[in-house]
Write a structure and sequence with these properties.
It is flat and about 50 Å long. It folds into two domains: 61 residues; 34 residues. The chain is mainly alpha-helical. The termini are far apart.
Length: 97
């Protein structure tokens, strides 16, 4: 059975997430700053690849006249998620002091 591109995109993201969880589980008690940075870079690359594929697949389902709205929606949601994530991390750091 041939996998669809949607299924491959989902599988690549889930595989990347599983690898990251496994790395953090194995090295949890031995983590140093550089290891966390390296693991996060690997995770970021995987998310970036999966996001691009997902956006392309979803935009293929839009009519030609609405493809720009699909791009705008994805980029807006991505920027909002980054802003929320940054705010949450800053609040956690503030509370830890």
């Amino acid at each position: 059975m041939i996998e669809s591109s949607e299924q491959r995109s989902t599988n690549s993201f889930l595989f990347n997430l599983a690898i990251e969880v496994l790395l953090f589980t194995i090295f949890g008690m031995l983590l140093i700053t550089y290891m966390v940075i390296g693991f996060y870079i690997i995770f970021g690359i995987g998310c970036g690849i999966a996001f691009g594929n997902t956006m392309t697949i979803v935009n293929l389902r839009f009519p030609v006249q609405q493809k720009a709205y699909g791009n705008i929606s994805f980029n807006t949601l991505m920027q909002f998620a980054v802003a929320v994530g940054t705010s949450v991390c800053a609040a956690l750091v503030l509370l830890s002091y």
